[in-house]
């Protein structure tokens, strides 16, 4: 990694920071900018080891008058967002891999060459890519802290940086770009960064569609074009026209697990919005094609379809434009509640794809291959990936909600109390009803509002084209009957549509029994007749880590996948694993390439589903160049895991992990579940209580509003600890596990052997290293000093920080390093650049939390807003929320 590349990043950070300083000076005066510089100076010197400066920083912040607190927090928040823009720009420009680790950058051309040397023929490579099915599922978890209006301004700022860098020979262009940059940064400064209202599920879906419109719409054909060129070089052929190695699904508007705001009406509206936007985007493509395909040479098939006309391609495209316009108008009418009086609409993918394919084949047949493989091919690729709905909408609901429907139904029919039946009784009843031709649900059934909502969701399934919908996910699934219940409801209410049904195993106990549940399910002849030879299973990362601690959860996830692979192989069923990862390490996050290659051998067999959530959607797919690189990373990793899978772990390594996980789990539970001081400490030292006021997403922060920490969702659980920089959920227990092993003779050698030879363990250590580098026990101690009075709680805090320090020591031993991130200098640099801007926000947040508590939550609107800005700024600075 060259010095010049680092300097380009530093230069852009400096350009953006200087512009922000001038904007603030214009608004609030140079005296205020001097205050910001004073604060930053204290923070920077404090980071360099000057303890006096750290104390002076805190004192300075505590003396700030109320009127200054909001603009100070806004200034540091804005700088951190601008630093993120500079880093994103750097990644896009220089195509750096997401983890910035030298030697780990996956390049598809090199992988194809490795595969060929391993004995895979060029034809096999084409078939593997053509048959690959990677679905990236965009989810609306409440972790995107930046408003959409600001994201648009930040994208425009990125464009200005590109213009400035490319204006060496055209100085006037550079001057214009610099002027535009100043304007955009001023716009951002004068825009409220905090939403005043929580977004609705429809708002979230619109945000997801905007990512497709502004980024993926361009990135998808670019990705396929690069893939085509590579395959032409290595195998002499293109990817098949209808191949879509990477597709997109969504939970936005379909995920009703614990979110009462997602209703059947909302789901229907989101589906219609997708149809409307797809039609609108395709119309732009078709108008361009109509303008460009002015040729007269055509094959007999096209002539037979359009007749003897001078411009056959334009004639066919004109007819297609008419139908797509009608589709757009129909969707708009449905959204507005109006009747539609127009002509025939596009109902499915084939109706859009077939006319374009006719044009393509005609151009190729008459020798105009260059034209065929231009913008027309790009549109065909888009249709293959996005269909006529942009994404497939998944539906998710909790297993207990389906059980409630069956309870009410069996009670109504005089069949008994469903919830009191044994698992065997439930299965027998459900299988019998699945085979029955008569309807089970009475036509006039007066069920509860909750059950009616579940039924209405399945009515949406019945009314939709199957290609509009993805998978039906059952959260908190624990038994085969949980899956059979959904299959029965789909049969009873869902018409002829049969969606894939994926049980979600997300607690430690559920993960440990996942293989057994799927084995019993696939052994049921009635179920196999229903689903055929494919089964999807979702692995939950967030709740398992919250339930058991990160190390024990990671090992349970690995073992569950191994067992599921073996069970499905034995039953002759194709398994698709759906990874419910979050953005943080504590929720299964991390670089995609490393994460995929660390999965058990055989678990990634050409197919993969994975969630992309919140701010990670913007970081990975928010701009065309970044999105292109992200898709290449996924394709490369899945192809490598399929053709060149990692070795199975040795038996002695598995025994090591069993012991490590047991120790880590015991230590984690001993604190989180069994220490009576833990919950009071968590609530006292973190901003958990204030999180509910931050309007991040449409879901409540708790599954049940009357519950305690155990009902808190994994996202706010992680978010709260991240804000204090203790990052506790992602490491608690690991230190005890490693330290105990290092006490044994030969323990260090075994752990280092696993680190070097087992991708699963090596990747886990990499993620732990990155997390510890972002953590800061000094900052965590300050929150405690400011917010905690009870001696027993302070004692617990000291114990937790001591555990962290011990983990830091043993991790460096295992990694054989003197300091964290020795081998990933750009991550280290990014953290170091941000810290002097994050530290003041921590100081201000702790101060504002205390003032809020002193006032019983009745602080002024400006101070309340300042508190929320500190949360947004810290999240932006760490590039993780939940």
From TrEMBL:
<dbReference type="InterPro" id="IPR018129">
    <property type="entry name" value="PEP_COase_Lys_AS"/>
</dbReference>
<dbReference type="InterPro" id="IPR022805">
    <property type="entry name" value="PEP_COase_bac/pln-type"/>
</dbReference>
<keyword id="KW-0120">Carbon dioxide fixation</keyword>
<dbReference type="InterPro" id="IPR033129">
    <property type="entry name" value="PEPCASE_His_AS"/>
</dbReference>
<comment type="similarity">
    <text>Belongs to the PEPCase type 1 family.</text>
</comment>
<comment type="function">
    <text>Forms oxaloacetate, a four-carbon dicarboxylic acid source for the tricarboxylic acid cycle.</text>
</comment>
<dbReference type="InterPro" id="IPR021135">
    <property type="entry name" value="PEP_COase"/>
</dbReference>
<dbReference type="Pfam" id="PF00311">
    <property type="entry name" value="PEPcase"/>
</dbReference>
<feature type="active site">
    <location>
        <position position="141"/>
    </location>
</feature>
<dbReference type="GO" id="GO:0008964">
    <property type="term" value="F:phosphoenolpyruvate carboxylase activity"/>
</dbReference>
<feature type="active site">
    <location>
        <position position="546"/>
    </location>
</feature>
<keyword id="KW-0460">Magnesium</keyword>
<keyword id="KW-0456">Lyase</keyword>
<dbReference type="InterPro" id="IPR015813">
    <property type="entry name" value="Pyrv/PenolPyrv_kinase-like_dom"/>
</dbReference>
<protein>
    <recommendedName>
        <fullName>Phosphoenolpyruvate carboxylase</fullName>
        <ecNumber>4.1.1.31</ecNumber>
    </recommendedName>
</protein>
<comment type="subunit">
    <text>Homotetramer.</text>
</comment>
């Amino acid at each position: 990694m060259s010095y010049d590349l680092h300097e380009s990043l530093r230069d852009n950070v400096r350009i953006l920071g200087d512009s922000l300083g001038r904007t603030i000076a214009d608004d609030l005066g140079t005296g205020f900018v001097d205050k910001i510089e004073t604060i930053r100076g204290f923070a920077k010197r404090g980071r360099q080891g000057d303890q006096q400066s750290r104390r002076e920083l805190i004192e300075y912040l505590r003396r700030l008058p109320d009127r200054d607190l909001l603009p100070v927090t806004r200034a540091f928040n804005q700088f951190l967002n601008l630093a993120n823009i500079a880093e994103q720009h750097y990644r896009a420009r220089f195509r750096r891999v997401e983890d910035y680790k030298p030697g780990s950058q996956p390049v598809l051309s090199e992988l194809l060459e490795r595969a060929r040397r391993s004995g895979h023929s060029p034809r096999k490579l084409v078939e593997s890519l053509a048959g690959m099915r990677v679905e990236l599922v965009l989810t609306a978890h409440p972790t995107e802290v930046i408003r959409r209006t600001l994201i648009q301004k930040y994208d425009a700022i990125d464009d200005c940086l590109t213009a400035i860098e490319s204006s060496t020979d055209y100085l006037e262009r550079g001057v214009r770009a610099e002027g535009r940059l100043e304007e955009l940064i001023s716009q951002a400064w004068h825009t409220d960064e905090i939403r005043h209202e929580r977004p609705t599920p429809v708002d979230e879906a619109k945000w997801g569609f905007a990512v497709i419109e502004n980024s993926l719409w361009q990135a998808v054909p670019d990705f396929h074009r690069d893939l085509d060129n590579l395959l032409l070089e290595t195998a002499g052929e293109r990817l098949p026209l209808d191949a879509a190695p990477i597709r997109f699904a969504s939970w936005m508007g379909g995920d009703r697990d614990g979110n009462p705001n997602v209703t059947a009406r909302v789901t229907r509206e989101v589906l219609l919005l997708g149809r409307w936007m797809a039609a609108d985007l395709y119309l732009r493509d078709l108008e361009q094609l109509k303008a460009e395909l002015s040729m007269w040479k055509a094959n007999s098939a096209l002539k037979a379809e359009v007749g003897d006309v001078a411009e056959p391609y334009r004639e066919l495209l004109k007819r297609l434009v008419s139908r797509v316009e009608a589709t757009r108008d129909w969707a708009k009418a449905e959204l507005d509640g109006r009747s539609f009086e127009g002509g025939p609409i596009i109902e499915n993918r084939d109706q859009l794809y077939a006319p374009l394919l006719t044009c393509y084949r005609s151009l190729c047949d008459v020798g105009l291959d260059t034209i065929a493989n231009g913008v027309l091919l790009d549109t065909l690729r888009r249709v293959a990936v996005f269909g006529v709905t942009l994404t497939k909408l998944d539906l998710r609901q909790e297993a207990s909600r389906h059980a409630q429907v069956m309870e009410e139904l069996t009670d109504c029919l005089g069949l008994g109390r469903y919830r009191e039946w044994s698992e065997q009784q439930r299965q027998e009843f459900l299988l019998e009803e699945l085979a029955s031709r008569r309807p089970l649900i009475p036509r006039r059934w007066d069920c509860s509002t909750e059950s009616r909502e579940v039924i209405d969701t399945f009515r949406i399934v019945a009314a939709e084209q199957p290609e509009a919908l993805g998978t039906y996910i059952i959260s908190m699934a624990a038994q085969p009957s949980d899956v059979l219940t959904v299959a029965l409801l789909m049969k009873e209410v869902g018409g002829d549509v049969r969606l894939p049904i994926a049980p979600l195993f997300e607690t430690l106990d559920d993960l440990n029994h996942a293989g057994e549940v799927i084995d019993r399910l696939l052994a049921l002849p009635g179920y196999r007749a229903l689903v055929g030879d494919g089964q999807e299973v979702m692995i939950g990362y967030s709740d398992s880590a919250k339930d058991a601690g990160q190390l024990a959860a990671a090992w349970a996830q690995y073992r569950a996948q191994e067992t599921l692979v073996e069970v499905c192989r034995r039953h002759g069923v194709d398994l698709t694993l759906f990874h419910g990862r979050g953005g943080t390490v504590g929720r299964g996050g991390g670089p995609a390439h490393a994460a995929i290659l660390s999965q058990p051998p055989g678990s990634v067999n050409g197919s993969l589903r994975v969630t992309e959530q919140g701010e990670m959607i913007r970081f990975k797919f928010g701009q065309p160049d970044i999105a292109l690189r992200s898709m290449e990373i996924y394709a490369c990793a899945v192809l490598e895991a399929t053709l060149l899978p990692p070795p199975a772990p040795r038996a002695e390594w598995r025994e090591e992990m069993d012991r490590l996980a047991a120790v880590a789990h015991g230590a984690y539970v001993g604190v989180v579940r069994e220490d009576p001081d833990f919950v009071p400490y968590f609530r006292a030292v973190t901003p958990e209580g204030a999180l509910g006021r931050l309007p991040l997403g449409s879901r409540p922060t708790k599954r049940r509003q009357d519950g305690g920490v155990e009902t808190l969702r994994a996202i706010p659980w992680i978010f709260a600890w991240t804000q204090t920089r203790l990052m506790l959920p992602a490491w608690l227990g690991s230190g005890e596990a490693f330290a105990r092993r290092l006490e044994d003779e030969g323990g260090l050698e075994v752990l280092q052997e696993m680190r070097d030879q087992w991708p699963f363990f090596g990747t886990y250590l990499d993620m732990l290293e990155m997390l510890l580098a972002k953590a800061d026990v000094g900052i965590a101690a300050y929150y405690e000093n400011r917010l905690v009075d009870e001696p027993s709680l302070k004692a617990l805090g000291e114990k937790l920080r001591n555990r962290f320090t011990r983990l830091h020591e043993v991790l460096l031993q295992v990694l054989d390093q003197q300091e964290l991130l020795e081998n990933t200098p750009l991550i280290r640099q990014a953290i170091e650049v941000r810290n002097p801007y994050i530290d003041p926000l921590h100081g201000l947040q702790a101060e504002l939390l205390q003032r809020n508590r002193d006032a019983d939550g009745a602080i002024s609107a400006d101070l309340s807003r300042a508190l929320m800005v500190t949360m947004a700024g810290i999240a932006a600075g760490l590039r993780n929320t939940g």
